[in-house]
Predict the structure.
Amino acid sequence: MPNPFSVSEAQFSDLLTQIHDIITKYYISNPPKEIRPSKDVLQTTIQAEPPTALQKEPLGTYATIQNLLNDLLPGIFVQSSPHFYGFVTGGALPPALLADFLVTMLDLDVMVHLPKDSIHTTIERHTIYLLCDLFQLPRSFAPGSTITTGATGSNIVGLACGREWLFSRDDPSYSIAKIGYLQAAIKSGVHNGIKIIVSKPHSSIAKAASILGLGSENLINLPASEAEPWNMDFERLESLLAKQQEDKVRYIVVGQLGEVNTGRFMSNVPHLRELCTKYGAWLHVDAAFGLPVRCVNVYDEGTEGLADWNRIYNWCSGVELADSITSDGHKLVNVPYDAGLFFSRHPDVLQRVFENPGAAYLATSGVDIVAPCNVNIENSRRFRALPIYAALKALGKSGYSALIRRLILHARMIARIIKDELYQYYELIFPNIDDLFMVVLFRAKDDTLNEVLAEQINATGKIWVSGTSWGGSKAVRIAAANWRVNLEEDGFGGVAIVRDVLKKVASFNSS
Ligand SMILES: Cc1ncc(COP(=O)(O)O)c(C=O)c1O
């Protein structure tokens, strides 16, 4: 029977070699051409892993890892491919991938700041400074910022801070963190509670409202128009804010920079700020994949065919005026999953909500950095900062600028193929290519094909897209998010494969 707690040096290095070979092949020499496993492979891998009870005897490290590599991996789709255009997956840049291995090896826990013993919490703070630099946010945001599991986690943190601030700003004793929502609302005379004003938000805002007891049905959607629902109707917003005393409510206003279906940005965040300040509302901005436009104008080397990077940079203008901001490292920043980003101008509020009170064994010995467990949902959490730190150092500002520009240009090349070459079969839902970020939303002109378009595209196995709906009918969304997309026509990461797939699918016949 294998010893469950040890693996010989020879076996360990054999396993590392096998993993090394997979990574090298996967990344460099011969990346997988098929994004998703064939039906047969899916069936075989599932059948090879029946959900039997956990066996009594140990399988041991060597056999277990062989089982993963040989029997399970073939059944998993290749989400880190440049031709995986679904969700906004991003990918894992090599420095981030390697740093992530180290995090697992170290099994570090970011919970207490112990500067006499370790520098890891200091590295986390430095990483937050670097992120502020990357996104051109003032470094004064750092004390109120943290690294969450994802953008959903950040939205939860942002709404939790807003919820706290809306009552405790009048009187510190009205702290929801201390006395609960009900008591704080009664004491403040806000009998109808907190409502959240949005304009076609990501679903995670409703989820955050549900988790926080604010109620997912307490979202008030104020789209500016049917054509541009990501913009907010400022007139209706102001009339609601102006009578909040009378209505006995308080408001969190959520702006969105990067709407998930279209990639479009709400305009005029500075005006949103003015209204929130005038009427005392908390402004949270969800820029999960939009914030990286803040790095496209940092260097001047060549426009690569696009003149107006400053215009794109300005899609996020005013984001720094928000009370709290959500973004994501595991989207366009291209670090592995488990890396949401939260920024706020209110470290005091963040600490009041997330303080982990009265645990002597978590006493911190540093005064310069608050213990991470007092500014985030979890107490112990993964050292998420290290892969981000590695990616930021390895790419620098100009590397990120080049990456984000490439994603935008790649998406626009795809949009041009649809608009100029395949117009008999497909139409862009937003045909003005100069307004596109890295998301292309389109539909098939033939209704029968449109019904099954995403399914048919994904069935080719060559690319993977998300199905969605827009304006009452189904649509397909292509999101360029991976660091390996390129601006070539042919080959891995090029756009030719998208053209081929769309041409092939256009000949779909339901009969
Ligand atoms: C605008 C926006 N907010 C929030 C999220 C949720 O992100 P996560 O999956 O990292 O929680 C997404 C995901 O696509 C998003 O696009």
Summary: The chain has three domains: 9-77, 109-297+314-382, 390-506. The first helix runs from residue 9 to 29.
